[in-house]
Design a protein that fits this description.
Structural class: alpha+beta
InterPro entries: DUF3137
Number of domains: 2
Shape: globular
Strand order of the largest sheet: 1-2-3-4-9-8-5-7-6
Keywords: Membrane, Transmembrane, Transmembrane helix
Protein name: DUF3137 domain-containing protein
Largest sheet: 9 strands, antiparallel
Oligomer: single chain
Helix content: 40-55%
């Protein structure tokens, strides 16, 4: 665990960025106040019976407030980028020198779909903050993802588009320690009811992904497992791995989903919080703020150890 309080490099970086944060925060507050003032003048004057004069008078501070936000946009972007590359990057290096973060990269939509973990094809997809590296012999990477699908709803005023979240959180991928050819999926039992349509149109039909009843009753109660090859599923999900997955699931915020495909393991962690984002209106000098990001980093890094992925089986190097 990287301790912010005892890491002099991190402390110096945070102190330097705190100066930038205060300037940006002060400027943004000024912009918001001017915009609010413009709205109040416009609305207030209209209520008092002078709408034209009020709107003209309100537009002056309103437009000035927008200009202030526009002018600070590049500085804000640079501040957020510095936080990720310098602060989060330093925290990663303190944990393992192989770890890097790429703020503008992520896991592409094709790979997201190929995990076969999700029930819909995304109509809108965003990904960022790709972290990658090695833990022992095992290469891994993870990124934040927000995938959505849309539906059209008929209303009396026409058609309205509604957006629905497929997945929001972190997708973790790692080289698995065994070779396999088929597909094995382990998903929370509480979401299985929504999966039929997905299986019916997937690369492998539902009939080819048989339910696998495993020896671990607790695992069977938490997950429903489907596989194209029952024998291979048991080869992958050994008793010790099932125990480790259950422990991992207990430590996660929400129930995880896993897929084993192309000799790689994917784990989807649903999360509400957006990690690795620099605060604007909260101080950077509060250690707890960065510690939340560091806890997430350590959690992902420790998956390799927790699931014993460094143990190479039958020629897997």
């Amino acid at each position: 665990m990287v301790a912010v309080e005892s890491n002099a490099t991190l402390q110096n970086l945070l102190a330097s960025l705190e100066i930038q944060r205060k300037k940006i925060s002060s400027t943004q507050k000024k912009g918001y106040l001017l915009i609010a003032l413009g709205v109040v003048v416009g609305v207030g004057g209209s209520i008092l019976g002078q709408p034209v004069i009020a709107i003209i008078a309100g537009l002056i501070p309103f437009i000035y407030g927008i200009v202030i936000h526009y002018k600070i946009a590049d500085e804000l972007k640079a501040y957020k980028e510095s936080f990720k590359i310098e602060v989060i990057g330093t925290a990663l290096k303190s944990l393992d020198q192989s770890l890097t973060i790429e703020p503008y990269n992520g896991i592409q939509c094709d790979e997201f779909e190929n995990t076969q973990l999700f029930s819909n094809t995304p109509d809108r997809y965003s990904t960022e903050d790709l972290v990658k590296g090695n833990a022992g012999k095992t290469g891994f990477y993870f990124a934040e993802i927000h995938a959505e699908y849309k539906t059209k709803v008929q209303t009396k005023n026409g058609t309205r588009t509604e957006w629905h979240t497929i997945f929001k959180g972190i997708l973790f991928a790692a080289d698995f320690n065994k070779n396999f050819n088929g597909v094995t999926l382990a998903k929370p039992r509480d979401i299985f009811g929504s999966m039929g349509a997905w299986f019916s149109k997937n690369l492998f039909s539902f009939s080819n992904k048989d339910v696998v009843t495993l020896e671990n009753l607790e695992f069977n109660n938490a997950f429903i497992t489907h596989a194209t090859d029952q024998v291979e599923a048991r080869y992958i999900l050994t008793p010790s791995l099932m125990e480790r997955i259950l422990r991992l699931n207990q430590n996660a915020q929400n129930t995880i989903s896993l897929s084993f495909i192309n000799s790689r393991m994917y784990i989807a962690f649903p999360l509400d919080r957006n990690y690795f984002e620099a605060p604007i209106f909260k101080t950077l000098l509060n250690p707890e703020l960065l510690n939340q990001d560091i806890v997430a980093i350590n959690f992902m890094y420790d998956i390799v150890k927790e699931l014993d992925l460094n143990t190479r089986i039958w020629g897997k190097n």
